[in-house]
Every structure is written in C-alpha cells, then in structure tokens.
Design brief:
The complex is a heterodimer of chains A (442) and B (312). Chain A has 442 residues and is an alpha/beta fold. Chain A contains 19 helices and 6 strands. About 5% of the residues of chain A have low confidence. Chain B has 2 domains: 213 residues, Rossmann fold (3-Layer(aba) Sandwich), CATH 3.40.50.300; 66 residues, ACT domain (Alpha-Beta Plaits, 2-Layer Sandwich). In chain B, strand 7, helix 5 and strand 8 form a beta-alpha-beta unit. With 312 residues, chain B is α/β, with parallel strands linked by helices. The longest helix of chain B is centred in the middle third of the chain and has 16 residues. Classes of the chains: A alpha/beta (442), B alpha/beta (312).
C-alpha cells in the first residue's frame, strides 16, 4: 500500500493545527472586509458640514440653489477676491467657495475652492444641483418644455460584440477581465505562498536529517508527493474558508450599510436629478444592478476554473520548489533559486494589464497556453467568457489545460529525481552540472 | 541459524569513485555484528543500500532470505549517525507517524510506545514537542523510534554518540536485551571498546572492500602473535632457565616481590610444556595470553602502508 496518505495527513494536520494557519485564515477576509467597509464608509460619510459661499458671475441665475443635508449655501453678489477674504477671516464659517463663471452655460464647468476636500457624495450633490439649474436654463432659453426634454433625453450605450463566420455573437467585456485579474493575483499569491511552504518543509527535513529515516521507510517520490498534496489540501481548505468567511462578512457589511445609512439622503441625490439617469452611488442599487461587475461574472464557470488552474499551477511549481528545497541547506540560499524559478509567473503578472486591454493579442494567447504562465493569464482571459458565451475559443482553453497537466506530470517526474539525490546531498551545494548528471543517471 | 542479512558481491559506484568493490557479508540471526572501517571506507553507502535508500549496481542483498524490496523496511530499524526528528512535533505523534510508515497500525504503535516509555522511564513526555526535551532525551526518543516496530534487524550507526555514560549504558543494556529476544544487530561504530564489549562478529571495510572479518576472538587471536604475560615470584634467572627453548622473554618488570614477564612462544614447545617446566622453578601467580585490542587491530589494518613500513 502506498504510504502517501500517511505522509499527506501529517503534512496537512501539522500545518492546519498551527496557530498561524488559523490567524491567516481568519485575518485575510477580515482585513479585506475592513478595507471594503472603510472605503464604502468614507465615500458615504460626510463628517463635516460644508458651508459654501457662492460667487455667481451670472447673478442671480443660480439663486434657486437649495440647502441640503450637510450642505449650506450662501448666495451673495460679491467678487471672487472678496469671497476669498471672507472665507479666511477669523471666525469665518465658510468652508468653501463655489465659483460659477460667466461662461458656465457654454463650458459646463466651474470651480470649487475648499479648505478641506469634500466627500464624493457632497461633490456629487453640488454637481447635481448646478447641472439641474443649467439644464433648466438651457431649456428655457431654447423654449423647450421639460416634458418634451424628458422624452428626448437619451443616454446611449455602445456594447462591442464580436461576431464569427457562423454568425455567433459574443460580448467583449474588458472590465470583467479585472475580476479575472483578481483571481489571477490570488493564484499567483497562493502558488508563491504554498510553493515556498513545500520548499521550506523539504529543506527542514533535509537539514534536521530526519529525511534519512523517512526514506528508509518510504520512497522519496512518495514523500515528495505526500508533501505536495498535503500542502495543496491546506491551500484548498484555506481558500474554502476565505470564500465562506468573505461571503458572510460581505453580507454583513451590506446589511450594516443598508441599515445604518440614511438612505433617503441617497435617494435625494437621485430624485433631485429631475431629468436624470440612474445613479450608481447607492450600494444597494449597485449590488442589484445586473450591469454591476460582480453580477456579470459567471462564477459557476470561474470557480471550477480557478480551482483547476490553482491546482495545476501549484502542482507544477510546488514540484520545482520541492526540488529546490532538496538542493539547499539554509533559508538564505532560497532567494537565488526562487527568483528565477518564479520569473514566468512574474512575467505573466506584469503582462496582465496588457492582456486585459487586448485579450486576443498573440502574447496573451501564448501566455494563456504556455503552462508556466497559463494559471495567471488564462484566468484573466477566461473571465471574458468561453465558447458560445464569450470570446475565448474553446480549443485554446482545452489546449492550455492539457498542456498544464502534461507539463506538471513531466516536471514532477524530473523534480523527483533531483529531490531524491538532493535530500541526501549535504555539504557543498551541487553544481548545475551535478544536478544534470542526477537527472541523467537517476 | 539462518542469516537475517546476506550480502554477496556488492558493487556501487558514484560518478567520481567506486564506493563498494565486491562486498560480501552475512549477519546471523540473534547476533551483534560490528561493521568497522575508517571514514569514507564505504560503511554509509553499505548501510544506505541495506536500507533501500540508494540503489546498488551489482550483487545480491537479502533480508531474512528475501531479496531487498520495498517491504524490507518493515524488518529493519535504522538509527542513522546523523540523528534528527521533527522538532515541532509532539513526541508521541512523531513516534506513531514513523511507526506507521513502517507499516504498523496506530493502535499497535501506541501500545508499543507505552511499553518503551515505561521501560526507559519517560512516562510524561507524550504531550511535549521534541524541541522541549534535552539532547539526551531526544536521543532516547530516536532510539525508541528505531525499535518501535519490532524489527528483526537493527542497524545502529554510532548509537552511543551523544549519550552520557549512564544513558549509554541504558542503551547498551537495551541492545543486549533485544539480542536476547532474537533481534539481530548491525553495529557501525568507531568506538572499539564497545565493539569488544558487544559484538560477536565483525567485518572491517576499507576502500570499499572487506579487509578483515570473523568472530571477535578469532580476529584477536589472529593478530595476537603468541604473546603471554606471566606474573611470578622468584628470580628472573630461574624463570629464563625454565623457559629453555620454548619461549623468549620480551620484557621483565619487577614490582614489590613479584615479577611480570612478557614472553613470546618460539613454537618449539607446547604452552602446557612450558607451564610444566616453570612450575617448581618459580611460583606462578597468573598466566594469560596477551591479545591485541580491537583498537590496535583496526589501526594496524587501516593505517597507510608507508606508516607501517616506517614502524617496522
């Protein structure tokens, strides 16, 4: 009977039982949630009431501007210089000056001078009011009734579709690729993290000499595979935990913000925009919007693919890391091996923005098929869609997967040879010539 | 008795040198077999081959009358010279893990651990990590890990290094007890005193070849050169006369009323004839054959040839 399960179990349990595993598993989703929550909170929160002094070169056109929650307007017929002096007087209540220039109807732009940067929502509120007034002015000037305007007001969207000779259409969606990029970064990060974990573990067994006792009981290949697969399970468990915890926290954050937010104030923004379009600042609206990026991603496809490319990429690189671990005797030696080893992954990562912009370029196609880069690049291209539902030809995906499997089998075979000779080799680090002779003779 | 280990005409070469050149040896069941030799002689290679850690080029290796294969490891307990266990793993878990790799069930391993813990008086260690133990204690755990699965053949490489005299004796006693229970032991060591104390047979390996082997007494006799030590009271004159043509005196040493003489036989008279002729001339207090120590034999066999010539 193979002894891989016994080794696998030890490798798995010895890591999962560590406190550091628990901490990382809990901390990552919590940190992500905190960052997410803070960014939402910051964009929604206005901690200081703004007192805006308005300088209107078209006085009194913008007199109809109304105070809002957290925003008071002071409409006076003064010059900009005077307004500045007023703002910086001792005891001045003004926090900003809204300067509406004479040509505002043509330029559609104005300046807001502030002592302190206002929040995004405050800024949006001011913009909406001015926008409404300008639009109303223009309607009046052109003698167009508002009802007519609302009927003809158009917001046009352009969606690029790719068409092939069979007449099948597919949607190109580069912003979806950013979600793929997220998956790709996760794969990159996890291959590095768990790969080095395998390397350390191999090195530790070699340095503390227990490896001699163990390989007198099991084949070196079994030991290496038990280790690699055991750590893979640690990774899968961690991803699963992250997935579950993140989902729970994500739902919790949603509830928290929807519950605590003064939603009416958000709705205000939308309703004040009388002739307006849909406003996406509201988190609830955002999450329910079918156009929202997370809602456009086909998770039923992406998650299995993520697992495939994570496992494939991990097994490939972990075998190499195991071989490196068998060649070195100390932590300080790791870097000079790890850097060249993971260079392809790094290249794929650096190329990612290019792939997002042009997922069909030759370099993108090549790196998504080449096994040492495909786990990263293919995730990005994949998020755009496969086959009927998207732009990626199915043969490329299948070729990429097949090559990944084949390559990792080859690499594991080669790595096990280096591993077998390396773990017994102590003293001077073997030369590349020596390693080559191991590969040849073993 | 059957041989637990039989090695015939074993060859092994590395890319840069020939490590073993036709090594043959056999370990009889229930014996303690000493594998001696200077550093780099090929002992470690031989031990690794027996443990199925490295492959050999040519020859036969049989464990318990079966050619070496992946199941042989169950019959072998191996204590390498360079010790090591997982530092951050609990002692008991570690022992169970190693025993399971040898094919033992968790249940049996636990039972055997309990026995060994009580035998070596270490009952309270099961919850501790290895790194929390003293070096000597770690060595004890390592020894237990070697014998836990009841191997038929124990391969011990410098088993006493790192032990204080008390614990070394404890381990020696355990080795003798295991021998009595039928376990065969291959002992590789540079400690010649323990070879004389423990081993039944030895093989001395040098430059990848067996240069000397046999039972310990036989080997010693072979290097003994027929020297005897006689302690007597009387005069050296009458002692020398009594020897006549049977033996030559090498040295006399007088102390108090006794004289210690070292003589070497000439081969013209039997030893009992010499004793008979001495009796009546001097009063013999003791008479014993002077055998070389294993240390002397080792040095004589493995010392570079030039050195020997210089000494002669």
């Amino acid at each position: 009977m193979s002894k891989i399960p016994i080794i696998l179990k030890r490798e798995f349990l010895s890591r999962v039982r560590k406190r550091s595993f628990l901490i990382v598993t809990l901390l990552v989703p919590v940190l992500i949630s905190i960052v997410l929550a803070i960014s939402i909170w910051l964009s929604l929160q206005e901690n200081q009431k703004q007192h805006i002094l308005i300088v209107d070169d078209n006085y009194p056109v913008f007199q109809q501007i109304k105070n809002e929650k957290g925003l008071s307007y002071y409409y006076q017929d003064i010059s900009l210089e005077k307004a500045e002096k007023l703002m910086f007087l001792d005891g001045s209540i003004y926090t900003g000056i809204l300067y509406l220039p004479e040509n505002i109807m043509a330029s559609n732009a104005s300046k807001l001078y502030v002592k302190k940067q206002p929040g995004a929502i405050t800024q949006r509120r001011i913009e909406k009011q001015i926008e409404n007034i300008i639009e109303n002015q223009k309607l009046l000037y052109n003698k167009i009734p508002k009802e007519i305007y609302n009927k003809i007001n158009t917001e046009f969207h352009l969606t690029p579709f790719k068409i092939n000779e069979n007449g099948e259409e597919s949607k190109i969606n580069s912003d979806q690729a950013f979600v793929g990029f997220g998956f790709a970064i996760l794969i990159w990060f996890m291959i590095m993290m768990y790969g080095t974990m395998v390397m350390r573990s191999v090195m530790e067994e070699k340095v503390n000499r227990i490896v001699e006792v163990i390989i007198s009981s099991v084949k070196p290949f079994e030991l290496m595979m038990g280790k690699i697969i055991g750590v893979a399970f640690v990774g899968l468990l961690q991803v699963l935990m992250w997935g579950i915890l993140s989902s729970i926290l994500f739902v919790a954050i949603q509830f928290f913000f929807i519950g605590s937010l003064d939603l009416t104030s958000l709705q205000d923004i939308q309703t004040t925009k009388e002739v307006g379009r849909v406003n996406h600042t509201d988190i609830q609206v955002l999450l329910q919007d079918p156009n929202f990026i997370l809602n456009r991603i086909n998770f039923a496809v992406m998650i299995p693919l993520f697992l495939f490319y994570f496992l494939g990429g991990y097994l490939l690189y972990a075998a190499l890391f195991a071989a490196v671990g068998a060649l070195i005797d100390s932590e300080s030696e790791t870097q000079q091996f790890v850097t060249p080893l993971t260079l392809p992954l790094l290249i794929a990562y650096v190329m990612a923005p290019g792939v997002i912009n042009n997922p069909e370029s030759i370099s993108a196609v090549f790196t998504s098929i080449f096994p040492f880069t495909s786990p990263v690049t293919m995730m990005i291209r994949m998020s755009i869609g496969v086959g009927d539902s998207g732009g990626l030809p199915i043969w490329q995906v299948l070729l990429s997967m097949a090559l990944l499997i084949l390559t990792f089998l080859c690499i594991i075979w080669l790595a096990s040879k280096i591993y077998r000779a390396g773990i017994l080799h102590t003293g001077k680090r073997p030369s590349f010539k020596k390693i080559f002779s191991w590969l040849k003779n073993a | 008795m059957a041989d637990i280990l039989r090695i015939k005409d074993l060859y092994k070469s590395y890319s840069d040198h020939q490590a073993l050149k036709g090594v043959s040896l056999s370990v009889v069941s229930g014996q303690i077999f000493g594998l001696l030799g200077p550093n780099g002689a090929g002992k470690s290679t031989l031990i690794r081959i027996i443990n199925n850690i490295i492959a050999f080029d040519k020859g036969d290796v049989c464990i318990d009358s079966r050619p070496l294969d992946q199941f042989s490891s169950r019959e072998i307990g191996y204590l390498p010279e360079e010790r090591g266990l997982y530092k951050k793993m609990r002692v008991t878990e570690q022992l169970i893990y190693l025993a399971r790799l040898k094919g033992m069930s968790r249940f049996d391993a636990k039972k055997a651990i309990k026995d060994w813990f009580s035998r070596l008086d270490i009952a309270n260690w099961d919850k501790k990590n290895l790194e929390d133990l003293s070096k000597g204690m770690q060595q004890k755990i390592q020894f237990i890990s070697t014998v836990l699965h009841h191997p038929k053949l124990l391969i011990l490489d410098e088993p006493f290094s790192g032990f204080d005299p008390l614990n070394a004796q404890l381990i020696k006693d355990e080795i003798m007890r295991l021998k009595k229970e039928g376990t065969s032991i291959l002992l590789s060591t540079h400690n010649m005193a323990s070879v004389e104390e423990l081993c039944d047979k030895i093989s001395l390996i040098h430059h990848g070849e067996i240069v000397l082997d046999g039972r310990v007494e036989t080997v010693k006799k072979k290097f003994g050169a027929n020297k005897f030590e006689v302690v007597f009271s009387g005069t050296s004159q009458s002692f020398s006369n009594a020897l006549w043509i049977g033996a030559k005196v090498i040295s006399f040493k007088e102390k108090d009323d006794t004289i210690t003489a070292v003589v070497t036989l000439t081969g013209r008279m039997e030893i009992k004839e010499i004793i008979a002729s001495l009796i009546g001339k001097v009063e013999i207090l003791s008479f014993r054959e002077l055998l070389p120590s294993m240390q002397d034999i080792f040095l004589r066999v493995v010392a570079p040839k030039e050195e020997l010539i210089a000494n002669e």
